[in-house]
Write a structure and sequence with these properties.
Blueprint (H helix, E strand, L loop, with lengths): L15 H28 L15 E5 L9 H11 L5 H17 L4 H15 L4 H16 L5 H12 L3 E9 H10 L4 E5 L1 E4 L2 E6 L7 H14 L7 E4 L5 H6 L2 E5 L3 H10 L2 E3 L5 H6 L7 H4 L5 H9 L1
Parallel strand pairs: 1-2, 1-6, 2-3, 6-7, 7-8
Antiparallel strand pairs: 4-5
Length: 310
């Protein structure tokens, strides 16, 4: 029997070193198992968790029109101004047709855009900033609240829940953008700044409309001021005009993309999300909702063309 003693388990007291060795081995086994599971998930096509919880060097930048909200904020604002007798029916109808053509053609004529901007500013010239802000609050409830895309709203909330700041970035007047951002619980908004003196609009812009490359510059400046790392930030837009902004960040998303942005996003392997209904909307990049409000791209341009052509 003594010869079989080596088969009999022996009780030995665990030293601190052996305990450490055992714990280290168990931890290594657990980590290896987790890594294998993670690799299996990645190979199955699952995206890594994003946004990253607690990453305060990251933020999210959202275009507004057709990204966060169906249609154009400026057009909905224009409907509210029309209701309040700021301009005439003939001007609104003419604007709506022109904007519908623009959305279908997808071409911006610089001379025409300048003409539209000049006339747009004439609408608010002489009005108080506080007045337009108050009207903006009413118009949000009347026309905008029900047009927020739930899917995009959920994306913005995910960043907020992760402890990150979320900004709207839009060519719409900054006063309108700030109303929408506050109503959605976002951090703030970057928008086109109209000059005012003593709280009254002068009819001039400060710089140029926040459009295309100007959006990218605004995001870059804000990121610098907020000490953000753009490579850890996200940006969301529906328009190829915002490719400069989307290219600036480490996590670009194409939301309800127009045809050019959809192609570009696929070439760059950017993430895409489409919350519209209808194949035509996805192909052409027109807002899916019916009606003049859905095809118009901006208010103030409203009026421009008709006034200049009289």
């Amino acid at each position: 029997m003594a010869a079989l003693g080596w088969l009999t388990p022996r009780r030995r007291s665990a030293t601190a070193r052996s305990v450490l060795a055992g714990e280290a081995s168990a931890e290594a086994a657990r980590k290896s198992s987790q890594d294998a599971e993670s690799a299996a998930q990645d190979s199955a096509g699952r995206e890594p968790e994003f946004p990253v919880l607690g990453d305060d060097r990251a933020a999210a930048f959202f275009d507004l029109d057709n990204t966060v909200m169906q249609g154009a904020a400026l057009f909905h604002f224009g409907r509210g101004l029309y209701k309040r007798k700021f301009f005439e029916t003939r001007e609104l109808a003419r604007f709506a047709w022109q904007q519908a053509w623009f959305r279908l053609a997808g071409v911006e004529d610089p001379e025409h855009m300048q003409d539209a901007r000049d006339s747009a500013l004439s609408i608010v010239k002489g009005h108080r900033v506080a007045e337009l802000r108050a009207i903006g609050e009413e118009i949000y409830d009347e026309y905008m609240a029900e047009r927020i895309w739930p899917g995009t709203r959920a994306l913005a909330q995910a960043h907020l829940d992760a402890g990150q700041k979320v900004w709207l970035v839009t060519a719409a007047p900054v006063e309108i953008a700030q109303v929408i951002a506050r109503r959605l619980g976002l951090t703030g908004a970057l928008g086109t700044v109209a000059e005012s003196v003593d709280g009254v609009y002068t009819g001039r812009l400060v710089g140029e409309p926040l459009h295309g490359p100007a959006k990218a510059e605004a995001v870059r400046a804000l990121a610098s001021a907020e000490k953000l790392e753009l490579g850890r930030c996200a940006a969301y837009s529906d328009s190829h005009n915002d490719i400069p902004m989307l290219s600036l960040v480490g996590h670009p998303y194409a939301i309800n993309p127009d045809a050019k942005l959809r192609r570009y996003a696929r070439e760059k392997d950017w993430r895409l999300r489409d919350y519209r209904t209808g194949r035509k909307a996805a192909k052409v990049g027109i807002p899916a909702a019916a009606g003049v409000g859905a095809v118009a791209g901006g208010t103030a341009a409203a009026i421009a063309f008709s006034r200049r052509r009289r």
